[in-house]
Design goal:
CATH class of the largest domain: Mainly Alpha
Order of helices and strands: EHEEEEHHHHEEHHHHHHHHH
Strand order of the largest sheet: 1-5-4-3-2
Largest sheet: 5 strands, antiparallel
Number of helices: 14
Shape: globular
Strand content: 5-15%
CATH topology of the largest domain: Endonuclease III, domain 1
Distance between the termini: 50 Å
Structural class: alpha+beta
Length: about 300
DNA sequence: TTCCAGGGGTAGA
DNA sequence: TCTACCCATGGA
């Protein structure tokens, strides 16, 4: 197995571990996190069909970015390397403009100003298709179930990495769409979500739904939300999660975690209506989701 | 055994 | 717009 190394430097404050471990995505297959070395692993399929394995860790030096080690078979063409750089930059949001959010945090003093050291970049997948499938697998299920369902999809239908065929990449929409429904259901345990994932894969593979175009769009959030809500299985919670993943933070993902956290912290344990709970973050404007996330995040709430 | 999870679709008002 | 009911699965 050959390997290629490069470092991606951010042009703004950046915290590698704070980004990699910003939410549960880091442990959803084919991602994995090695606590002892602070390394994220990922088996990754390029558009050319080549499957490589990535080791991602903090770069060295004052402008620490993402140090990337790519394990691959044979020569890595320049086009594949450029595609990998783009994918890693996308996953870690190295080009995302967070200065307006940092300005709000700085204005609120401690502990919010800690965010300004490079937090606020929530890890995402290289494609909105992968993120949408994973989000569908978070609905009405405990986190352990989400991990089980995503692992099952990868193991059943992902392309194997030549260095260790037991390690697989996230399956493409085309790969999932090609599986007969009965076989798909038999080889996964998605429950009623199975039909949603199969329909999504079919629409993306056939070109009827261009999620990656939606992800790049600069149209108003409300228009993107309506498009996401038109996906079977995507409701208000999933749409808000997906908006966060494409860099729109003006919608809050109201789920059981949000409801319990806001009730405990702001309503003395009494359960408020969803509207009352949402109103807690009204002052954050287009940054509500990030504000909630770091409010929830262990440590940021201390001393508030 | 029963309940419910990082909800959503549908029908009916 | 709101509510009631149903949806598969597996952990608690």
């Amino acid at each position: 197995m050959d390997s290629t190394h490069f470092v991606l430097a951010p042009d703004a404050p950046f915290d590698f571990e704070g980004t990699a471990y910003s939410h549960g995505w880091v442990v959803l297959a084919p991602n994995a996190w090695d606590e002892s070395s602070g390394t994220m692993h990922r088996v990754h399929r390029l558009a050319t069909g080549r499957v490589v394995r990535l080791e991602l860790r903090a770069g060295e030096g004052s402008r620490s970015g993402v140090a990337v080690r790519v394990e691959h078979r044979g020569r890595l063409p320049a086009a594949d390397r450029r595609a990998l750089e783009a994918d890693v930059r996308h996953m870690f949001r190295l080009g995302e403009e967070l200065r307006p959010f940092y300005a709000l945090c700085r204005g609120r003093g401690r502990p919010w100003n800690r965010v300004c050291g490079g937090l606020g970049r929530l890890l995402r997948s290289p494609t909105l298709f992968e993120d949408t499938v994973k989000t569908l697998c978070t609905t009405n299920v405990q986190w352990g179930g989400t991990k089980r369902m995503v692992r099952g999809l990868v193991d059943a239908f992902g392309d194997p990495w030549p260095g260790d065929p037991s390690l697989r990449a996230f399956p493409s929409a085309e790969a999932l769409a090609a599986v007969p429904a009965a076989e798909f259901d038999a080889r996964t345990s998605l429950g009623y979500r199975s039909a949603y994932v199969r329909e999504l894969a079919g629409r993306v593979a056939s070109g009827h739904l261009d999620l990656e175009d939606l992800a790049r769009s600069d149209r108003p959030t409300v228009e993107l939300r309506d498009e996401l809500l038109a996906i079977k299985g995507v409701g208000p919670y999933a749409a808000a999660t997906l908006l966060m993943l494409v860099g729109r933070y003006d919608e809050l993902a109201v789920d059981s975690v949000f409801r319990e956290f806001v009730a405990e912290k702001y309503f003395a344990g009494e359960r408020p209506s969803d509207a009352q709970a949402r109103a807690v973050y009204d002052g954050w404007g287009e940054w509500k989701y990030l504000a909630y996330w770091f409010d929830l995040w262990e440590g940021v709430t201390e001393g508030l």
